[in-house]
Structures are given as structure tokens and as C-alpha cells.
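Module 6 notes. Inverse folding takes a fixed backbone as the condition and produces residue identities as the prediction. Think of it as a translation problem where the source language is geometry and the target language is the twenty amino acids. Below is one complete input and output pair. Work through it position by position during the lab.
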């Protein structure tokens, strides 16, 4: 089955037709999605700017990792569910969209980086504090990826 055929099949399922025809579902789901985006972006901006060394320098990096990373793991499942409902409602608009694919690629990459930051910190709470250049690289790349994810997410509608 090709992806366009799969999109056609999905958009004719009862669940997709419900999402397409009940007017409040898509705006309500997008609202939940955007509220979660604000939580993820605020948490990760605080942490990444600390790792880069431009903000929150009075706080230990390990404390910031422990404080902000859990917000990402709590919020991502809600983003995944709300995002999946948007995909089921408009499969072709999302799955055939290069911005959507770029967004998912960047998301997988930044999840991997965030896991490394957290696991290294769990193993040795001085790991990042004693490797400022590495911390700066991790924080910088992570922040750029999150900005890229938001940008791609918004541009999906304009492809
Ligand atoms: C976890 C997996 C995720 C999935 C499956 C997903 C899926 C989607 C989908 C399908 C849309 C609708 C695009 C449209 O039709 O206009 C969307 C919009 C968006 N997403 Fe995600 N997303 C996910 C995670 C994220 C994350 C982690 C962020 C940022 C931190 C994000 C930011 C956005 C933004 C800014 C929009 C545009 C919202 C709007 O214009 O109303 N998404 N997402």
C-alpha cells in the first residue's frame, strides 16, 4: 500500500470522518497541542540556555536537568496523542508534507539528545558542569532543534 493510498483509506475511516465533520474537534485538539508546546519550549529553553551558559548560571546544571527534563517526558505523550488525532483527521495534509517529516526527524533527534543529557546527569551529577563545552554544544543543538520543530509545525499548514 502506498502512503497516498493509506492516507485515502485513513481519511475515510469513521474516526477520521468524525474529526473532519465535528467542527470543534480540530480547534480543540490544536489548542491542547499548542498549550503543550508552550510547556515543552519553556522548560527546554530554560535548560538549554543554562547548558549554553547564557542564563541561570547561579543554578547547578544537574539541578536544572532534574527540574526541567521531566516536563518534556510528561508532555510528549499528550503531544503525540493530540498530533495523532490531527493526523487521523487530515492524513494527506500531514503525512505527505515535508515540513511534517522534517519536524518528526528533528523531534526524534532532540529526544535522543535530551535522553543523553538526562542519563549522563543521573550517572554523574557533575558530568555536564565539568564539561562546559560539551554542555554548550548539547544545549545549543537542542535549542535550535526545538525552534526548528516549532517552525516546521507551524509551516505544515503552508505547504
Ligand atoms: C510528539 C509528536 C508530535 C506529533 C505527531 C505532532 C503533530 C502535529 C500535527 C499533525 C500538527 C498540525 C499541523 C497542521 O495541520 O497545521 C501539528 C502542529 C504543530 N505542532 Fe506538533 N506534533 C508533535 C509534537 C510537537 C512538538 C514536540 C512541538 C514543539 C515543541 C510541536 C509543535 C507544533 C506547532 C507549533 C504546530 C502548529 C500549530 C498550529 O499552527 O496551530 N509539535 N503537530
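Target side of the pair, the amino acids:
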Amino acid at each position: 500500500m502506498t502512503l497516498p493510498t493509506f492516507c485515502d483509506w485513513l481519511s475515510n475511516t469513521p474516526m477520521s470522518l468524525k474529526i473532519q465533520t465535528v467542527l470543534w474537534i480540530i480547534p480543540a485538539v490544536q489548542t491542547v497541542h499548542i498549550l503543550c508546546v508552550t510547556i515543552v519550549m519553556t522548560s527546554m529553553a530554560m535548560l538549554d540556555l543554562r547548558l549554553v551558559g547564557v542564563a541561570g548560571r547561579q543554578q547547578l546544571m544537574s539541578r536544572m536537568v532534574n527540574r526541567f527534563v521531566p516536563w518534556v517526558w510528561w508532555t510528549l505523550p499528550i503531544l503525540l496523542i493530540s498530533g495523532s488525532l490531527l493526523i487521523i483527521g487530515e492524513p494527506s495534509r500531514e503525512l505527505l508534507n515535508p515540513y511534517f517529516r522534517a519536524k518528526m526527524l528533528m523531534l526524534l533527534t532532540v529526544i535522543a539528545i535530551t535522553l543523553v543529557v538526562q542519563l549522563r546527569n543521573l550517572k554523574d551529577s557533575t558530568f555536564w558542569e565539568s564539561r562546559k563545552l560539551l554542555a554548550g554544544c548539547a544545549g545549543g543543538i537542542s535549542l535550535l532543534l526545538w525552534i526548528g520543530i516549532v517552525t516546521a509545525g507551524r509551516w505544515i499548514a503552508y505547504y
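Reference fact for the lab report: The CA atoms of residues 29 and 73 lie 19 Å apart.
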